[in-house]
Give the backbone structure.
Amino acid sequence: MNYYVIASAVIVGSASGAASVYWINRGVHAGWIVLGALAVGVGCTMVLTAVALLFAGPDGYMVVHVAYLACVIGLPLTGAVVMVFGRPIPVVLTALCLASFAAIPVGVYATYIEPFWLRVDKATLAVNSIDDDIRIGVFSDLETTSIGGYENGALDRLIALQPDMVLIPGDLHSLDPDRLDEWSPPFTELMQRLVDAVPNVLLVSGHSDTVSDLRRISRGTGARVLNNEIITLELNGNTVYVAGISLHDDRYSPAARQAAERLAEGDLPGVRILLAHEPDAIRLLKGGTVDLLVSGHTHGGQVSIPFFGPPITASRVPRHVAAGGLHELHGTPVYVSTGVGRERGNAPQLRFGVRPSIGIIDLVAGD
């Protein structure tokens, strides 16, 4: 079942219902016409959404997608129907109809412009345990089924910033496991290009990828997939410990907890970095601290409301932390990437107020 077709049917059903009411009630007072149109539109939306969920299951993303399409397409269509079939129209109603047309450019921007308006998110962090600066690149949540101009361009921008190490905190792809061998070669080529420019590339799994398929993708490239383990690197004369923890069925295993706790014990003489898909992994430190936690997952909420922030972050960390960037939480600096890609599947393919980003974190000597 194509869920986008169902969502489109919701819009068409809503607008058609509104048009029918206006056509039948042309001689009725405009206020009653509006109420009738709303009732029919909402009814069509609810019925067709229920049909969609029968096929999709309890998929919240599908409901959000339908609501988004109803706002950016259904509202302007309804406004147009009112203005065409509802004459004479009161001034206030005319103003509301014209205002509904503003949803069109908002939808175009959120769907076709901001998701590809990549930015570089730079942060500086003072760390007492280093002598020479270390530049970390973050390439998170690419979350795509194909590699094209946008993905390659994002990688080129990261490489041009000359990081000493690149961390990939999961959701590299959204490939169907049954077609991984067929569709993964471009991802391997992307990874090889990155490793050729930055030899220290470390990955962990997220929700849309696994340790095994990341290893298949990165096999032979020199990139390293961490699975609940701590590795040691020498970067610019500094010793760096990176603990990479994996997600398994949306939860962390005892091995992940052990790796995080070991990193937080404080007896490792160097920079200690925890790499995890979710910023919620901070709870694995059990009150301990590390020099830096690098994560993704939230996409910054993908939608951010001015003066409020993202209403949904799929995370339990404070909303301002999940919104992205470098923050301190329970004594640990936490960097959350807004991601390079966007949510896939039945979710609306949009960003609004949360541009995609590649991250650059400069670790500098502390006082």
The first helix runs from residue 3 to 24.
